[in-house]
Structure prediction request, 293 residues.
Amino acid sequence: MHIPVLKNEVIKYLDPKPNQNFIDATLGDGGHALAILEKTGPKGKVLALDLDVDAIKRVKTKAKEAGVGARLTMIEDNFANIAGTTQKEKFKPVHGILFDLGLSSNQLEKSGRGFTFQKSEPLDMRYSKESPTTAEKIVNFWSKRDLEFILKDYGEEEFSKEIAKAIIEARATKNITHTNHLVDIVKEATPKWYHTKKIHTATKTFQALRMAVNQELDNLKLALRQAVDIVENEGTIAVISFHSLEDRMVKNFFQDNPQLTTITKKPIIAGEGEVKKNPRSRSAKLRVARKSI
Ligand SMILES: C[S@@+](CC[C@H](N)C(=O)[O-])C[C@H]1O[C@@H](n2cnc3c(N)ncnc32)[C@H](O)[C@@H]1O
Prediction:
């Protein structure tokens, strides 16, 4: 089950009040969206987006059971189109917008789309089945230079050169189609001591591929710009990121935008108790800005 990260903190900063409207740009398993709806009755609404239609199907049942189905509109879409979707849905005024980036535990553990290195699955890694690029395409067709770039920049992988080289060599003999093959390649390309580290040897490679497949940094950049226009004056934008490049992008965007004031002086991180219960929260950073014009 996906446990929403920093839920109390998100609610504290978004501060949802009765009858206010919010956008959840990353519905996932609906943990944050339902928590917001709990606070915004009887008429407050949530417009939720997700690229993954399976997430929407799952939350539909949950929202019905919680008695908030009528106040939750879910759209299968990329948050890079957040302005157009909000306009199409005539959803306003918007008091706050939440982005909880990356993937959900459900996608990691149960989607069968190759997000995990724990099982043998096809190398897909797309949030949306409509997206054109899969992880399989990247590992089999991208140049050594491009592979190295994503491994280094998105994965922060110190053996980016070695892994990229090993991928090129391996695919010359046989297409790389499944997660277990990729894990073997990464293991062979890296020294023994690297295999005994706390995080799995292939963690960074998998993260890099996922971010490249789903163009995560580009989408965030596009969405942040639009979010400022969508949110009403005094409204808030909250972003939970799990990657230093994303966090830096959010931090700089909030700082540089004259309409925004950052209200989290330092990024909010999960406490020890939360990390113990939900290891995924370990790398989460929440930043929140308020619009004032
Ligand atoms: C970390 S989960 C969100 C979890 C959610 N806050 C909860 O409490 O259950 C992130 C979700 O965002 C979705 N997602 C990632 N990139 C997206 C994008 N560009 N547009 C829309 N949804 C996206 C993923 O499919 C995933 O379901």
